[in-house]
Amino acid sequence: MSIGFQVLQRPRKVDPQWVERYRELPVANVSDSMNRMTAAGTRLRPMHRQGVLAGPALTVKARPGDNLMLHYALDIAEPGDVIVVDAGGDLTNALIGEMMVAYAVKRGVAGIVINGAIRDAANIGAGDFPLFAAGVSHRGPYKDGPGEVNVPIAIDGMVVEPGDLMIGDEDGLLCVPFDHVEQVHARAAAKYAAEHKQMEQIAQGSNDRSWVIAALKTKGCALLGEA
C-alpha cells in the first residue's frame, strides 16, 4: 500500500433505485432532514446550464492543480457514477475542461464535482452535464500525481465515502451516507409533501401563522401593544 498514491476498490455503492428516488427531491429538503449539519460549502456551484446531479460517489483525492488521478477515475468509472474530486479548493489550475466532460458523457458518468477549478466555462455552461466546481481558471492542470481513488475525502467538512449518494441542484451539493439513504429519504419525502401542502394553503390564504407569535412569546420578545 502506498498512502497518498493509490487506487482502491470501492467496497459498495448506493443502489440505483435510491438514486432515482432522490432525483425527485430538492436538495434543501434532504438537507433539512439531515438537521442542516452537512454541506459542501457555498463555493461549489453548478457550472452547467441545468440538470440534477445524483449518483454513487467515485472519490478522488488530488494534489491541487493536478488531474492525473481524475483522468484515471474517468477511465474506471461505471455508468451512473458521480466523480467527486477533493483538490483542496485550489483555483490556480483548472482540473477539467470540455474535452474531459465530453469523455465523461461518453462513459455514462452521471456528474462530476470538483473542489477546485474548471475551464472552458462557456461550453460547459451551455450544456446539461451536471458539473459542480468552486471556480474557473484558464490555466491548465499538471498530470504528475500523486493522488488517491476510492478513499474517504472531505469537502468543507462534508465527508464523502466511496459509494455514498451524491445529490446536487441549484441550491448546492449534499452527500447522503450509504447507511442512512433509506432513513433520510423517508424524512425528506415527508417534508417535501408537507411543503407542497403549505404552498397550497398560502395560495388559498389559509396558512396558519400563529406559530410566529407563539415563538416570540416563548423567547420573551416584547411585542407591540404589550406593556
TrEMBL record:
<dbReference type="InterPro" id="IPR036704">
    <property type="entry name" value="RraA/RraA-like_sf"/>
</dbReference>
<keyword id="KW-0479">Metal-binding</keyword>
<protein>
    <recommendedName>
        <fullName>Putative 4-hydroxy-4-methyl-2-oxoglutarate aldolase</fullName>
    </recommendedName>
</protein>
<feature type="binding site">
    <location>
        <position position="120"/>
    </location>
    <ligand>
        <name>Mg(2+)</name>
    </ligand>
</feature>
<keyword id="KW-0456">Lyase</keyword>
<dbReference type="InterPro" id="IPR005493">
    <property type="entry name" value="RraA/RraA-like"/>
</dbReference>
<dbReference type="Pfam" id="PF03737">
    <property type="entry name" value="RraA-like"/>
</dbReference>
<feature type="binding site">
    <location>
        <begin position="97"/>
        <end position="100"/>
    </location>
    <ligand>
        <name>substrate</name>
    </ligand>
</feature>
<keyword id="KW-0460">Magnesium</keyword>
<dbReference type="GO" id="GO:0046872">
    <property type="term" value="F:metal ion binding"/>
</dbReference>
<feature type="binding site">
    <location>
        <position position="119"/>
    </location>
    <ligand>
        <name>substrate</name>
    </ligand>
</feature>
<dbReference type="GO" id="GO:0016829">
    <property type="term" value="F:lyase activity"/>
</dbReference>
